[in-house]
């Protein structure tokens, strides 16, 4: 009886419980973008289709990034596997959440809701590259938080970099730097 009551169990429970609570809180935060009547529909879409269409521009927006630009920004040559690209994005975007659409060869970095307005000028420069900042009036197919790798039979998209907690988003400056690095590696863009 050298340990206090529940000693090891408290440590184990505290290390497991916060992750489950954080995932539940994050899911609820994502679903809060949907009007009350549609939240149950979105939950069912996650269960049945592994993707729910969520409106952008209220709590978060998204930057659509072409796969070739992302690979170039990460200095990934040849045909790297998805896990390599995911690890690169995790590092470059400092753990900010990213959704991958492997069939469309696109990535969606989740950013603050005001990025479409605050980066309007840059967005025009990025558009010819296939980069687009998506905000109000658009929807994004968002997978449930547990879908963190591609399974061709089970999902259309997955969390390339999982969302760790509510409102934890990519820093717009990090996304802009990734785009600039990709442009430089691809040899596109001019001098200002």
Characterization of the model:
This protein has 7 helices and 7 strands; from the N terminus they run ααββααββααβββα. The strands form 2 sheets. A 5-stranded antiparallel beta sheet has the order 5-2-4-3-7. A two-stranded antiparallel ribbon has the order 1-6. It is α+β, with helices and mostly antiparallel strands. Helix 3 (67-73) crosses helix 7. The longest helix has 25 residues, at 7-31. Helices cover 42% and strands 17% of the residues. It has helices spanning 7-31, 39-49, 67-73, 82-92, 115-118, 120-126, 172-186, and strands at residues 52-55, 60-66, 98-101, 106-112, 132-134, 139-142, 158-161. The chain is globular, with a radius of gyration of 19 Å. It has one domain (7-186).
From N to C, what is the helix and strand string? HHEEHHEEHHEEEH
- Sheet with the most strands, sense and barrel status: 5 strands, antiparallel
Using only CA atoms, what is the Rg? Answer: 19 Å
- Helix-and-strand structural type: alpha+beta
Beta content comes to 15-25%
Terminal residue distance: 72 Å
| Total separate domains | 1
Oligomer: single chain
Counting DSSP H or I runs of 4 or more residues, the number of helices is 7
| Total strands | 7
The global form is globular
Strand order, largest beta sheet: 5-2-4-3-7
Helix content: 40-55%
Low-confidence stretches: 1-16
Estimate the mean pLDDT confidence. 87
């Amino acid at each position: 009886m050298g340990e206090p009551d529940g000693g090891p169990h408290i440590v184990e429970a505290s290390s497991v419980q916060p992750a489950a609570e954080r995932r539940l809180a994050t899911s609820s935060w994502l679903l809060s973008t949907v009007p009350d009547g549609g939240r149950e529909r979105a939950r069912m879409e996650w269960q049945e289709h592994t993707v729910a269409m969520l409106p952008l521009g209220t709590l978060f927006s998204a930057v659509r990034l072409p796969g070739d630009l992302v690979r170039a920004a990460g200095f990934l040559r040849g045909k790297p596997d998805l896990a390599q690209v995911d690890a690169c994005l995790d590092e470059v975007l400092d753990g900010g959440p990213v959704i991958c659409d492997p069939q469309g060869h696109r990535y969606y970095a989740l950013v603050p809701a005001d990025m479409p307005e605050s980066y309007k000028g840059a967005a025009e420069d990025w558009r010819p590259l296939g980069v687009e900042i998506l905000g109000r009036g658009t929807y994004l197919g968002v997978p449930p938080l547990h879908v963190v790798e591609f399974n061709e039979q089970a999902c259309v998209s997955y969390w390339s970099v999982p969302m760790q907690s509510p409102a934890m988003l990519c820093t717009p400056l990090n996304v802009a730097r990734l785009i600039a690095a990709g442009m430089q590696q691809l040899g596109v863009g001019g001098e200002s």
